Amino acid sequence: MADIPSVQFFGQMPPQISSHYTTFEDNQNVLIYLNYFEIDNQMLILLSPSPIEYSQQSFIVFSSTIRPRYRVSQKLMISIDQFKSIVSFNILLFGDLYLTNKTQSQPINARNFQTFITPNPLPQINILVVPGVYSINFDQIYEFLESKLALKNECIQPQPKYDILVYTTNPYRVCNIQFQFDKTTQLIDYFYYLIDNHIYQDINEIQQIFLLDNIKGTLLDFLQGKNQQPSAYFIQLIRKNFSYNTQDNKFYILQQIKGFNQIHQNADFVKIFCQNCEDGNKCTLLSSNNQQIFFSGQSSLFKYPLSIKFMDLVSRTFSHLICQLLFIANAQNATYQIDRLANIDRIEEAISCPSFNPQRNYQNLEMLGDVVIKYLTSAMLFEDNTYKTENSLSSARVRLITNKHLSGIFGKLKLNTMNFKINSKKFLNHMMMIINEQEDPKLSQKQQADIYEALCGACYIKNYEFKDLMDFFKLTKFEFKGKVQQFYNGNSLIDFSNNSQDTDNDNDYPLKKQIQKRPFTEILKFNQPFKEFEDYLGCQLNNIAEAMTVDQFERLEFFGDAILELLVIVNVHKECEKVYYNSRQQQLCREGKINQKLLLCPGMLHTAKISLLDRGFMGTMAMYHNFHQYARNLSRETQKDLNKALKLLREDQFNDFRKINQYSLQIPKIMSDLWESVAACILVEHGWEMVVKIYGELYKPYIKYFVDNISLIYDFYQSSGSLKS
């Protein structure tokens, strides 16, 4: 009965990985692309059927820093015979590494050579590995094939220490030499070797496991069973299969190499972190503490034709490199498609779902994209005076930013995303007949909308220019018709390089320090002159009456809500990335040395909205800066409520951030509405520069405090139920 081909799930594979190699001149030559990787002071060369571009300078896999030597794969034309030898080399090499080769020759179920040079309806991983440093070492390939296929076995020579792999032919096993001995070597010497190499703890443990009372005599006599009592089962098997040439003077105890998927046995394959590698002892295919041993005389042992260093390097990194290449190639293809529309950085992050990369995925960019889309659509709708009320404006905006609408735009881009994590530990041998499940897990409508928003966020933060995103809108057929240039010029960035309000370097809540210098007002006044308020703000506002009058500021409040959300989220994200989202922080997280919450997770950006944009915070800020004194048409009931709230505020010391948000129930909502409407009034008349000058300075100490204490604030809101787990 024929073997049923194995199934390996990789999802939609990019052509750089899965396409066939192109032949020329009547199939006499083959075009290949060389990908050079510097890994732990070694070079590994992988061949791909199409060029791969590397935007990253390096990446880390199990504590090994991997640096692509060239930004783009190097093109090379080789003969069809050379390519055949490379394919045969890989089939035999990976058969040995996966411990599936039963003989030295090519296995029956290996892939046919034609599957590498002809189109395949079911894409396969067509990445090949070759020996070499600056070029392919064909001599080493031919030597390997000659040893394996022509059965040209090279006997080993006795030496004090072996740093080579060896193999036996009957049965076929690739092994490392554990212990070399001769006819006079004492059994006790071998036992001390086992103890010194931490395979066993002491002689008593060895005697119990080996079922020995007497440990006198030679090791050779023990393995032959001469003058020995019955021993452990695995020793009996060794004795049963033991045969040697009487002319042999040297003998070897062997251990079979680890299988390909036994490397990094105790590693975290989600974080791609291995404690053994981190401790400086890079994982190896050599079985150092395995208690299963084999025995061979010198005449039955042959030198393996590849070095331990090369075999270790391939075993330790190949499958994880494939995962990385899948990601890099998908990002490259997405970049090509997006580059036709806009010049966007961080494409890799924007197309990575949380299930693929828990540390760096689209979620933060999605939140940025969400707020900037909200701002631009709000600005566009605000331009249209046919929308008279906040409700009509909000309803129109909702239609533009629903998941259904945004996912429809994303679908037309036809981007492949990284939406599931490939566990490299479960890789099957790609040189065997393996069927690849081609279809990606389907993205939900929300995921598609999120990725479109992430692309928008990446587009905006490249230069923090609205024009970049407006151009992207146009090219992706997003319905945007904004015309008032003042709304779309400038940017929302606050200058944190000189924070004069925090010269004492303490970590007190900003409002605590501010009320020590200027407390909340003692006297409750209303309907004060607008000129006084304009002087306080530092700018003249022709529409201040509309912004400060109840029942008239609805449109401005609608616009101001989007303005302040953009101002806060963009600046929190930008400052947080400097501290919490650099490459070192990400590596420490992968290694388990810091909690993942110390990276900038999306929940933390959501926390910024709760902490700095809720009714309690904005209402308190409006009260502290006396917005209520200049408001118009406040009802008597509202004035009474403001008086009660002001008394509470004057009594509060605001020792930490927890207090301010609790005032969302005590301070009338109208105060947070005024806080937003005045922001919109400033932007409408003076643009973003003045918004940043006034509101940016007001928010600056609070954003800085939030960034410095983000983990503490995040934990508080999560434990209080304000954040979803």
Total DSSP E strands: 14
Distance between the termini: 52 Å
Identify the overall geometry.
elongated
Assembly state of the chains shown:
single chain
Percent helix range: 40-55%
What is the CA-atom radius of gyration, in angstroms?
A: 35 Å
Given helix and strand content, the structural type is alpha+beta
Q: What fraction of the residues are assigned to beta strands by DSSP?
A: 5-15%
Mean pLDDT over all positions: 85
What about the largest sheet? 7 strands, antiparallel
Protein name: RNase III domain-containing protein
GO biological process, one term: RNA processing
GO molecular function, one term: ribonuclease III activity
Keywords: Hydrolase
How would the blueprint of this fold be written?
Layout lengths: L5 E4 L5 H4 L3 E3 L4 E11 L2 E7 L10 E3 L2 E5 L5 E6 H18 L30 E3 L7 H12 L15 E5 L2 E10 L5 H10 L6 H8 L8 H6 L8 H8 L10 E6 L18 H4 L15 E4 L4 E2 L4 H32 L7 H4 L11 H22 L6 H12 L1 H11 L20 E4 L7 H19 L2 H10 L9 H4 L21 H8 L12 H8 L6 H5 L5 H27 L2 H8 L11 H12 L1 H10 L11 H16 L17 H18 L1 H21 L1 H10 L6
Parallel strand pairs: 1-14
Antiparallel strand pairs: 2-3, 3-4, 3-6, 3-7, 4-8, 5-6, 9-10, 9-13, 10-11, 11-12
Helix pairs in contact: 2-3, 11-12, 11-14, 11-20, 13-14, 14-15, 20-22, 20-25, 20-26, 22-27, 23-25, 25-26
Keywords: Hydrolase
Protein name: RNase III domain-containing protein
GO molecular function: ribonuclease III activity
